[in-house]
């Protein structure tokens, strides 16, 4: 009987938990459970109030160097007193575990647990606190560089469009709209804006909130280099879709921006770039979904494309983005 190769495996939570507890000298009473699969696989180790998060990177998703750069970034943020989930060393002072999976070598990192809970509908005080923390992260990492992705026209738009082409006809109006975004965007538009490290995925699903204003940000898997207004635009665009009442959106957006500017001011140019910044990051993630076909192909259909690009169009219309 032929044995077939594996693309992606789901490692036993029991076996992985036992391995991690031994490596980190953790309490043997900790129970390991698979929390979710997706971009990477996330496991929770917990016993009462003691909790840890284990990220098992998917095969060939991130190189060891990229993971080391993420870890270094988190340690810098931790050292500066910023509220992020940070990596933990094992008993041999290692951060990264090599996991031999059926598909090949995968990497695992243990993180602190972010206290609080995910809050989809944040109030204005929470939005202010998110802006404040984002700006603090940007200020610490301004003009710094990681050995990771550079977010520019090529990586955000051109590569994303190429990843979508195998799935969708370029004649579809939605693909034409994405192409129009690519045409209207120029890297020069983002010159003379604050450059540095960007998180690229700050929204309610990647933060925990306690007592409304105690924010902890996690999941820096997409961190890289670029104009820091990309993070601002992305958060605003997520808020735009969460808040059906656009009056509420405007109130909360302004609170978020006030929080950000309480730490570092945004130039007039940066403020004007928020709509385009939010748009191009969403195009990027549509490209990621196409790239990670192994988990996204269930919904990666023309109907899904119409829905997703419909969000692009409503945002572009709301902000009257030129040439779209």
Written description of the protein model:
The protein has 324 residues and is an alpha+beta fold. Helices cover 45% and strands 16% of the residues. The protein is built from 10 helices and 9 strands. The chain is globular. The N and C termini lie far apart (56 Å). The mean pLDDT is 96.
Question: What is the overall shape?
Answer: globular
Helix content: 40-55%
Elements, N to C (H/E):
HEEEHEEHHHEEEEHHHHH
Q: Cα distance, first to last residue? A: 56 Å
Estimate the strand proportion: 15-25%
Q: What is the fold's blueprint, element by element?
A:
Layout: H1 13-24, E1 31-36, E2 41-47, E3 50-56, H2 64-79, E4 96-101, E5 104-112, H3 124-141, H4 153-164, H5 173-184, E6 195-198, E7 207-210, E8 214-217, E9 224-227, H6 229-242, H7 246-261, H8 268-291, H9 293-296, H10 302-319
Antiparallel strand pairs: 1-2, 2-3, 3-5, 4-5, 6-9, 7-8
Helix pairs in contact: 3-7, 4-5, 4-8, 6-7, 6-8, 8-10
């Amino acid at each position: 009987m032929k044995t077939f190769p594996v693309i992606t495996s789901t490692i036993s939570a029991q076996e992985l938990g036992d391995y991690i507890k031994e490596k980190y000298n953790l309490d043997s009473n900790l129970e390991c459970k698979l929390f979710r699969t997706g971009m990477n696989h996330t496991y929770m180790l917990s016993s009462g109030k003691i909790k840890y998060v284990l990220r098992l990177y998917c095969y060939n998703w991130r190189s060891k160097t990229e993971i080391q750069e993420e870890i270094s970034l988190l340690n810098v943020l931790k050292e500066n007193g910023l509220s992020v989930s940070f990596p933990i060393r094992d008993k041999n002072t290692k951060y990264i575990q090599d996991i031999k999976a059926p598909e090949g070598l995968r990497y695992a990192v243990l993180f602190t647990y972010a206290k609080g809970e995910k809050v989809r509908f944040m109030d204005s005080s929470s939005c202010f606190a998110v802006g404040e923390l984002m700006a603090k992260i940007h200020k610490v990492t301004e003009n710094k560089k990681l050995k990771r992705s550079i977010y520019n026209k090529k990586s955000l738009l051109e590569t994303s469009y190429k990843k979508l082409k195998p799935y969708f006809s370029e004649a579809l109006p939605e693909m034409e709209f994405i192409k129009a975004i690519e045409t209207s965007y120029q890297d020069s538009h983002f010159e003379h804006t604050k450059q540095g490290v960007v998180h690229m995925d700050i929204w309610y699903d990647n933060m925990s909130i306690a007592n409304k204003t105690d924010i902890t940000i996690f999941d820096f898997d997409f961190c890289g280099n670029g104009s820091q207004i990309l993070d601002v635009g992305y958060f605003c665009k997520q808020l735009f879709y969460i808040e059906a009442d656009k009056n509420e959106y405007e109130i909360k957006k302004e609170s978020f921006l006030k929080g950000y500017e309480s730490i570092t001011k945004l130039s007039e140019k940066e403020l004007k770039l928020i709509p385009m910044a939010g748009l191009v990051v969403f195009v990027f993630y549509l490209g990621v979904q196409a790239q990670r076909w192994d988990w996204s192909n269930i919904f990666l259909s023309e109907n899904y494309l119409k829905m997703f690009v419909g969000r692009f169009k409503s945002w572009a219309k709301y902000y009257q983005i030129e040439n779209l």
